[in-house]
């Protein structure tokens, strides 16, 4: 008669944790230094509306805006570093040596997709660019914003008492 012997599983070496994978117990880190608050971009303050230079441009499929006359008046040449932010549905652009954006070699500014979405900038309708040259601020107005401003202005002209 055959005898069955129950096989014992092979013995494995006892696992040991590798010191390189286990963080050493260290004293708690000191709290991180607070992040500096960056100044928020602001809309230009104008005492004379005649100092505002206006231009129009269409955005291309890659998000670039070309308006040489306005950029030339601002003195923004290719390579100029810029900072960009959105305020009240407008895109505000100012020069900043540490800026994340720049005037490209063609003399265009690329508006990031997120900023375009936030402000309702779409392909097709022209954008209105308002430059406060002395303050070095460029404000990009979507077509819908300009249309709403003009509609309100016309309404005020037609019926000034209906405000």
Name some characteristics of this structure.
3 helices, six-stranded antiparallel beta sheet, about 160 residues, about 25% strand, alpha+beta
Number of strands: 8
Order of helices and strands: EEHEEEEHEEH
The largest sheet is: 6 strands, antiparallel
Content of β-strand: 15-25%
Number of helices: 3
Shape: elongated
Side-by-side strand order of the widest sheet = 1-7-8-4-3-5
Q: What structural class do helix, strand and pairing data support?
A: alpha+beta
Average pLDDT value? Answer: 84
For the record, give the distance between the C-alpha atoms at the N and C termini, rounded to a whole number: 109 Å
Ordered list of secondary-structure elements with their pairings:
Elements: E1 52-57, E2 64-66, H1 68-74, E3 81-87, E4 90-95, E5 101-102, E6 108-110, H2 113-119, E7 127-132, E8 137-141, H3 143-158
Antiparallel strand pairs: 1-7, 2-6, 3-4, 3-5, 4-8, 7-8
In words, what does this structure look like?
The chain is α+β, with helices and mostly antiparallel strands and 163 residues long. The protein has 3 helices and 8 strands; from the N terminus they run ββαββββαββα. The chain has a 6-stranded antiparallel sheet with strand order 1-7-8-4-3-5. The protein has a two-stranded antiparallel ribbon with strand order 2-6. The longest helix is centred in the C-terminal third of the chain and has 16 residues, at 143-158. It starts with 51 loop residues before the first strand and ends in a 5-residue tail after the last helix.
Write a concise synopsis of the structure shown.
This protein has helices at 68-74, 113-119, 143-158, and strands spanning 52-57, 64-66, 81-87, 90-95, 101-102, 108-110, 127-132, 137-141. It is of the alpha+beta class.
């Amino acid at each position: 008669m055959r005898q069955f012997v129950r096989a014992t599983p092979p013995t494995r070496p006892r696992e040991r944790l590798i010191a390189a994978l286990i963080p050493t117990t260290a004293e708690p880190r000191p709290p991180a230094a607070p992040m500096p608050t960056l100044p928020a971009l602001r809309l230009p303050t104008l005492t004379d509306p005649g100092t505002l230079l206006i231009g129009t441009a269409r955005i291309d499929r890659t998000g670039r805006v070309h308006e040489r006359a306005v950029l030339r008046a601002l003195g923004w040449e290719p390579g100029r570093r810029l900072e960009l932010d959105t305020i009240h549905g407008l895109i505000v652009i100012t020069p900043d040596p540490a800026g994340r954006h720049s005037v490209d070699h063609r003399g265009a500014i690329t508006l990031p997709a997120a900023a375009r979405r936030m402000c309702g900038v779409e392909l097709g309708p022209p954008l209105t660019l308002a430059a406060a040259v002395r303050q070095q601020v460029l404000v990009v107005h979507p077509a819908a914003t300009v249309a709403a401003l003009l509609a309100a202005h016309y309404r005020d002209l037609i019926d000034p008492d209906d405000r």
